[in-house]
Amino acid sequence: xxxxxxxxxxxxxxxxxxxxxxxxxxxxxxxxxxxxxxxxxxxxxxxxxxxxxxxxxxxxxxxxxxxxxxxxxxxxxxxxxxxxxxxxxxxxxxxxxxxxxxxxxxxxxxxxxxxxxxxxxxxxxxxxxxxxxxxxxxxxxxxxxxxxxxxxxxxxxxxxxxxxxxxxxxxxxxxxxxxxxxxxxxxxxxxxxxxxxxxxxxxxxxxxxxxxxxxxxxxxxxxxxxxxxxxxxxxxxxxxxxxxxxxxxxxxxxxxxxxxxxxxxxxxxxxxxxxxxxxxxxxxx
Length: 285
Hints:
The chain has 2 domains: 14-142, Orthogonal Bundle (Helix Hairpins); 176-284, Glucose Permease (Domain IIA), CATH 2.70.70.10. Helices cover 42% and strands 18% of the residues. The chain has helices spanning 20-63, 74-142, 278-284; strands spanning 176-177, 183-184, 188-191, 197-199, 204-208, 216-222, 225-235, 239-241, 246-250, 262-269. Strands 3, 4, 5, 6, 7, 8, 9 and 10 form an 8-stranded antiparallel sheet that branches. Strands 1-2 form a two-stranded antiparallel sheet.
């Protein structure tokens, strides 16, 4: 029936589009098929209207007063009378073709929606994969080979090694800081040359804590609490660390761009609010 209606084509199999490019091609093909069906339906609908008009004209010639009749024109009457059933049959076939095409149109429309959903799922998967790869590459770029930890004297107390040996600092905990907006300074800035190693002050677990304000940052969790080291130039060792292990390098990342290189050091006893590490630094450094 579709062949007689002038329609050719088939719906692409569901497994034909397994990549974004394949889905795009399948989606375009489905749209073309849908458009072809729409054009064929429009043509058939026009044909139905013409058949109705022709049927009405034939019926009028047979039924109107003074119209064609078997007495005045028997041969023409028979020809017209026989034409009416043929028109009716053709009208039925055309209407059946229309209904069949309409079902195909709905099938193709459903196929288009499924392809669109697949395309966006694949696009999101590729986008997330690229984001993960970019994040991995950026992380690798900021990590440097960690040199062997220098011989650092161990001290007793919470801080068993100086976080930035040779660095300079003052008690800046709790002062009003205007960098990045007015706020209370939650740590002490230990100033040193750019790239100076930052060391774990105690044994524990080092984790990357990078963020927009602190820039490249590392936290070291120990039995008595944790330290937060920010504005680093690069990340050092992570995971299990011992006192004196290199966990990063002094820098100016985050909102410290344009300032003197330093390690913003916070001390959070028992994992709670920040407390001044000034006394601990004095003991260890």
